[in-house]
Amino acid sequence: MLPPRSVPSERAPGVPEPEELWEAEMEQLRCSGAPVRGLPYAMMDKRLIWQLREPAGVQTLRWQRWQRRRQTVERRLREAAQRLARGLGLWEAALYEIGGLFGTGIRSYFTFLRFLLLLNLLSLLLTASFVLLPLAWLRPPDPGPALNLTLQCPGSPQSQPGVLRFHNQLWHVLTGRAFTNTYLFYGAYGVGPESSSAYSIRLAYLLSPLACLLLCFCGTLRRMVKGLPQKTLLGQGYQAPLSAKVFSSWDFCIRVQEAAIIKKHEISNEFKVELEEGRRFQLMQQQTRAQRACHLLSYLRVNILIGLLVVGAISAIFWATKYSQDNKEESLFLLLQYLPPGVIALVNFLGPLLFTFLVQLENYPPNTEVNLTLMWCVVLKLASLGMFSFSLGQTILCIGRDKTSCESYGYNACDYQCWENSVGEELYKLSIFNFLLTVAFAFLVTLPRRLLVDQFSGRFWAWLEREEFLVPKNVLDIVAGQTVTWMGLFYCPLLPLLNSVFLFLSFYIKKYTLLKNSRASSRPFRASSSTFFFQLVLLLGLLLAAVPLGYVVSSIHSSWDCGLFTNYSAPWQVVPELVALGLPPIGQRALHYLGSHAFSFPLLIMLSLVLTVCISQTQANARAIHRLRKQLVWQVQEKWHLVEDLSRLLPEPGPSDSPGPKSPASQASRPRSFCPGFPCPGSPGARAPPPGPSVVDAAGLRSTCPGPHGTPASARRFRFPSVAEL
């Protein structure tokens, strides 16, 4: 809307008229490609801009108007769907409350738990769509009678008296024996020959676990790249100043008291994280070379001791699994079935305590202590699962052992007629035991501890206090459970359903523990760094599950009397058979070439070129960021030069704002520059920084802004307050 004309006044030469400014602005809006919907104008002005952007003398076609209306409707529907998804999102209100009260670091754990739940539901959807529904719909023919194999075993099989003594339905549910003949385990699946049906259940069953692992890898990698911390890409000095967060963090739309309390806690947690990171960075910069060398030798000594403990722990897991599998005929067999999960849980409980004790003896800084302990906890957790898998393979598949039945059938057929079911039962028991352990710690350890601490007073109870909610420990627990689920995709296809139920219940159990029975961690950390760590550990668990599965699918003989691959030397042999049945010779030769070594060389060259392009692009982006940062500093310096010139030219008003000439003393007493509440890199540009120690502000930049009473800020030593002072 045009402003009303006013009485013409004297204007300096070169100053444009308001009409000229309005016309220039409208021309700029007409030529710009910014969407009209995002412009800060009224609807009447937006319609005018829309009309100005229409080509002159061209009549808008009906098809174009309909297409615009369709795009508008699609955009509005998409936005409405996004708002509905956010409103109906799983645990959104609970996540908002946790993030406000305890910070984004603890909230990232619960967000990660929800992400794992979605991954399990996706895996279950794939298995149900491509395996279970076709089995129910196609009704494949009966696979025929089982093969009557005469096993030449060194001793006759003995009965298991323990089974009759402890036979009850609950125990069979806990061990998985109650679901042996259901679709929960591999042995219940069976179809006829491949030529009898157009849809291959065998191929779907084989590719479903591989597809689940691939989708989980892509989702985890995408989330990992999206959650990279900014300091990894832009450096330690690139961060928002604290002053900007002080003046822009509050949400003035808040009208509810509870929301205001949560928002205040959230802002306080953000300041704690910022100040703690700045303090740690200053401590690292103050270390000398001699101190760093001593710390390096100390790290080496502690790591050697902890490495020996890890080796002993995984050896105990190996012998416990071997003893449990070799003593199947004893009366305590049913009790020995939970010996490997119990030993794994004991090792993962005592290991972090011993690691923390050894690290605390060296008097490391808190950040170094936590990182070192966490690294070895990750190694112990994944190594224990890896040793458990290897011990099962050595006992059941005779990996590294010489046995008569293994030479004839490819596995220990005397003790394990359906070895896939046996492996699935072991993974099922491990998953059940992990969840029962979570419930037991929440209600039998943490809850009584909170009740005793709140009920009694004294030095001992003050020292004991509530249990600290350790995010890394809880993350490692759910990552271990997810790794077990991935390991059992082939042997126990419906294990993701079981793990989804466990994750859903674990969310409410952990939320209750955090809000009622625990206290927040004393070490704050960013959600971006914690998310990156979570996804990295999850990728390691995915790799640990994918390697044994790939080896079993490609090289291990299937069971002779159960499952889908009874007549195949390995499950992967169904792929060449289907290729020979369903593809023409040209397609068979093409697939044969893609799977040969001749195709690996051009593939390697192409991947090398892609990697080279990506690295070059990353380096170019880093150089561009560096140039932009330098340009930003130059622009700030130029603006400060202009501010100084303007401060010299403008007259200074007196105490009573009376007109008249000002004294030279009042002009000389006025400072030549000023500093607002934000960092001013390179200011003032005309003066050199005063001698003495410089100040590093929250942004990591040198500041020479004068402080109150004319005292330059560089004359005062800046100190990051501790978290306790907040």
TrEMBL record:
Residues 652-662, 678-693 have a biased composition (Pro residues). InterPro entries: TMC, TMC_dom. It is found in: Membrane. Pfam families: TMC. Keywords: Membrane, Transmembrane, Transmembrane helix. The chain crosses the membrane at residues 115-137, 203-225, 299-320, 332-361, 427-447, 488-509, 530-551, 599-620. Residues 650-726 are annotated as: Disordered. Residues 418-528 form the TMC domain. Belongs to the TMC family. This is Transmembrane channel-like protein. It comes from Macaca mulatta. The lineage of its organism: Eukaryota, Metazoa, Chordata, Craniata, Vertebrata.
